[in-house]
């Protein structure tokens, strides 16, 4: 399935990065885009793919909030991305 609409959903949502800035925000967006591309690659059902991307975006917002509250947001974000449950997409 075409990943473009799913990726665009992420790129259009400025709220996804929350209070993250700079490289931490870029890392999160890149992670979300890769996730959307993986979802599109595996999916044949557009509605299911959109739901999976919405779930991914919800997880991204949670990660952004947690990372922004940390003393080192970039390190915290990397830790969250590397957690096994972060790769549910």
How does this structure look, described?
By secondary structure, the protein is an all-alpha fold. Helix content is 70%, strand content 0%. It is elongated, with a radius of gyration of 13 Å.
Strand content: under 5%
Shape: elongated
In N-to-C order, the SSE pattern is HHHH
Q: Please outline the major beta sheet.
A: none
| Share in helix | 55-70%
Can you describe this structure in just a few lines?
The protein has helices at residues 4-11, 22-42, 46-68, 73-82. By secondary structure, it is mostly helical.
What's the helix and strand layout?
Blueprint: H1 4-11, H2 22-42, H3 46-68, H4 73-82
Keywords for this structure?
elongated, 4 helices, single chain, 89 residues, mainly alpha
């Amino acid at each position: 399935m075409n990943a473009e609409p799913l990726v665009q959903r992420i790129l259009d949502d400025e709220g996804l990065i929350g209070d993250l800035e700079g490289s931490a925000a870029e890392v999160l967006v890149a992670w979300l885009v890769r996730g959307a591309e993986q979802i599109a690659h595996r999916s044949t059902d557009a509605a299911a793919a959109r739901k999976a991307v919405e779930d991914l975006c919800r997880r991204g917002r949670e990660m952004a909030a947690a990372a922004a509250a940390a003393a080192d947001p970039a390190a915290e974000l990397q830790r969250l991305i590397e957690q096994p449950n972060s790769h549910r997409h």
